[in-house]
Design a protein that fits this description.
642 residues; alpha/beta; Nitrilase/N-carbamoyl-D-aminoacid amidohydrolase; Rossmann fold; 2 domains; elongated
Length: 642
């Protein structure tokens, strides 16, 4: 529960139709298991105390009275347990029968929520037995306790303020204006759905997408508990298809036709962050809701840091599945190329100039520029790839730059800059044997000057090559490689650049291009500003600023969701367990925060570039951050971590 995580479950016990005591026993067994696993919310299926398929037995007083008594017995079983349980039962109120969810905690019933949409078509005939529920809550006497009954009720945890629960039942989800819409507008972050959805061929796919979609459009966690084995098979079969989704992502799913319990953690902090970012989220008017508060434990209660069961992806920018990854790469390349195409067409430019180093970033920029020229039907000789060897250039990267330009059929121009940089050193009184920041930055600025002047000479346009990870860390020379007329890689993280280049290998028929791209992928990431050692690259970027896979992980959670350092650190330890010791992760996390704050001035004046994903550091788009903001409170929190 610490850091906004809430462990939730959807449980489907094996029931006996109309045997309320037996069914309650099975529900209580699951509640005990859930409590032992530190689950804070467990959702059971629709009408699970009686069974959904009782038919006209719902007209029997004996069944209805026993169902109510079993709700009280189930409530008693939760006394002393730190969880909320939701069970379905038929409830008779003022002569009308309602398909109802009982929300239970701490030995009592917190509230009763009726089903609003009563299906009476195809295989469903609920209107024969049940009445549409009440919208506005009313106080009722439920076995001697005053309880609210109605749809517009939300349940709020005093221990975990982000946990606000709303309830709907089966068909309520399948209608255009589901109750969960208003629940979430009223503040609910978690929706529980008690369901008895019979199984038909292909229905599981539709159901899964429906739950994912609802969690996405409402920016909520959605726990869907489905009836399963034990329901009558006179006409229907129920598969116990349980689902847990969070903002469009399916976190857990049961196997169909296997009763049991699934559980995972939902990230309420992420949901809060998303809603805070989307200022349109609460534009609709809200209705009056009854808010029922509860506490998991009386008195002071420190939220436990439970071990997370949910998967934490170490590469959040890179889809894990090959098919999804290929589509992502295709989409990003098209966005990059279309952005550049539009800019070139707008200024009627037929010449693009790129500094080609033989590294990944400039390779991707050239490939994208090549595609843009194809879309414009421009002569590729108008692409001027400039290689500018200097002190740190190795034979390998030089050869790859040459081979890449030749394989694409673009114009290759070699401009050695050693003499110009040495002259600059003499002009400013710098000893060329001192390999400091001046030694490195002078080369970067000379290269940018060369590119700009070649572009001016040819009525051309300099295409930037720097990626988003470098921009986040400030790993760019101000007014050097930091500057261009259009940065095609500006919102592409370093961990994704590699896969974008790989995508070209997989999709091109140019065998020479495939060979050179493969070798570029195998080359260590380096700015090549220091002299080589024994002909090999002496300067490895990740040895200096840290592993890009760690920095991209930090970047994603810090910018996308605004997580605090402790939460980012916690997730990173899980994601990179066995790959990086925790002290190494903490070291580079401190580096990230320090550089991120110190280097904002470089991002405040970035050239234009296309946004390709959900995270961007553009000062005109996603990141409006003051260049002189203090990192003190973040660094203080980091210093307290271990």
């Amino acid at each position: 529960m610490k850091h906004g995580f809430l462990r939730v479950a959807a449980a489907t016990p094996v029931i006996r139709v109309a045997d309320c005591s037996y069914n309650a026993d099975k529900i209580i067994e699951f509640i005990t298991i859930a409590d032992n696993r530190e689950i804070k919310l467990v959702v059971f299926p629709e009408l699970c105390i009686t069974g959904y398929t009782c038919g006209d037995l719902f007209f029997q007083d004996t069944l209805l009275k026993q169902a109510g008594r079993e709700v009280i017995r189930i409530a008693d079983s939760t006394l002393g347990k730190e969880l909320v349980a939701i069970v379905g039962f038929p409830y008779l109120l003022k002569g009308k029968l309602y398909n109802t969810a009982a929300v239970i905690h701490g030995g009592r019933v917190l509230g009763l929520v009726p089903k609003m949409s009563i299906p009476n078509y195809s295989e469903f005939y609920e209107a024969r037995h049940f009445t549409e529920g009440l919208l506005d809550p009313v106080g009722i006497d439920f076995f001697g306790e005053e309880v609210y009954f109605g749809s517009r009720i939300i349940f709020k945890s005093e221990d975990l303020p982000e946990f606000i629960l709303g309830v709907e039942i089966c068909e309520d989800l399948w209608i255009p204006q589901s109750p969960s819409i208003n629940h979430c507008i009223a503040g609910a972050t978690v929706i529980a759905n008690l369901s008895a959805s019979d199984e038909l061929t292909g229905k599981d796919t539709y159901r899964r997408e429906l739950v994912k979609s609802q969690s996405s459009r409402l920016v909520c966690a959605y726990i869907y508990s489905d009836a399963g084995e034990g329901e009558s098979t006179t006409d229907l079969v129920f598969a116990g298809h349980n689902l847990i989704a969070e903002n469009g992502t399916l976190l857990s799913e049961s196997n169909t036709f296997e009763n049991g319990m699934i559980y995972t953690e939902v990230d309420l902090g992420k949901l809060k962050s998303e809603r805070r970012r989307m200022h349109t989220y609460l534009r609709q008017g809200t209705f009056d809701y009854k808010v029922i508060s509860f506490s998991f434990k009386e008195g002071e209660y420190e939220l436990p840091e439970i071990k997370l069961n949910r998967f934490i992806d170490p590469a959040p920018f890179v889809p894990a599945q090959a098919e999804d990854r290929a589509k992502r790469c295709k989409d990003i390349i098209n966005i990059q190329a279309m952005g550049l195409k539009t800019r070139l067409a707008h200024i009627n430019c037929k010449c693009a100039v790129i500094g080609l180093s033989g590294g990944l970033d400039s390779t991707l920029a050239l490939l994208v520029t090549n595609k843009a020229f194809e879309l414009l039907n421009l002569d590729k000789q108008g692409i001027i790839a400039v290689t500018m060897p200097c002190f740190g250039t190795t034979d390998r990267t030089y050869r790859n730059a040459v081979d890449l330009a030749e394989s694409l059929g673009v114009t290759l121009l070699e401009v050695p800059i050693r003499e110009a940089v040495e002259q600059h050193f003499r002009d400013i009184g710098h000893d060329k044997n001192i390999h400091d920041l001046t030694f490195e930055n002078s080369q970067a600025r000379e290269r940018t000057q060369v590119l700009m002047d070649i572009a001016g000479k040819n009525n051309g346009f300099v295409v930037g090559t720097g990626d988003m990870s470098e921009l986040a860390l400030g790993w760019a020379t101000y007014n050097g490689d930091h500057m261009s007329m259009y940065g095609v890689n500006a919102s592409v993280p370093k961990t994704l650049v590699r896969f974008l280049v790989s995508y070209f290998i997989d999709t091109t028929n140019n065998e020479k291009l495939k060979v050179v791209l493969a070798d570029i992928l195998d080359t260590p990431v380096s700015p090549e500003l220091l002299p080589p050692k024994d002909g090999k690259i002496a300067q490895r970027t990740e040895d200096i600023v840290g592993p890009y896979e760690l920095h991209d992980f930090f970047l994603y959670y810090i910018l996308r969701f605004g997580y605090e350092p402790a939460k980012v650190y916690r997730l990173a330890k899980i994601a990179f367990e066995g790959r990086y010791p925790k002290d190494v992760i903490l070291k580079w996390l401190k580096v990230f925060y320090k550089r991120f704050f110190m280097q904002q001035y470089k991002r405040s004046c970035l050239p234009d570039g296309p946004k390709v994903g959900s995270v961007s550091v553009s000062p005109r788009g996603d990141l409006r951050m003051p260049s002189d903001a203090s990192a003190a409170i973040w660094m203080q929190e980091l210093d307290q971590l271990s």
